[in-house]
Amino acid sequence: MGQDPPVEVLAALYLLKLHADRNPLIMSMRRIGSPFTADDESCSKYLRTLPSGRPDEEHVGGALLYAAISRTPRFSTSVLVNSIRKEVGRSFNWQHMVSYFDRDGLRISSEQFLALYTALKPIAEDPDEKPFDIQSLWGGRWQYSETQLSFINAYGSLSPEQLDATTIPGLQNSFTLDEYTGAMPNVQERAATAVRHPLVSVHALDAVFHVALQSNLASDTPEAKRLFQEVVVPNLDVFVVSAFGVPRPWPDLATDTLNSLFDRFLYKIDPNYDFVLYSVWHKDKNWLIGRLIETHGRVPLELPVILEHAIRHNWLYDLLILNGFGLDLAALAHAHGKLELDAWQQKHAQRSDELAEMLLNFLSIKAQHELQAQRSNMQEPPTSVMLPVRTVSALLNILTSILPRTLTAEQMTLQRSCITAYPRLVNYGEGFDEIIDENGREKNSLPREANDKMEEHYKRMYSEEIKVRSVVEALRDYKFSRDPSDQDVFACMIHGLFDEYTLYNTYPLEALKTTAVLFGGIIKAKLLPDLPLEVALGMILDAVKENSPDKPMYKFGVEALKQTFERFGEWPGFCRHLLRIPGLQGTDVWAKAEEVCREQEENAARGINGNGL
Question: Where residue 286 falls among pLDDT bands split at 50, 70, 90?
Answer without folding.
Answer: very high
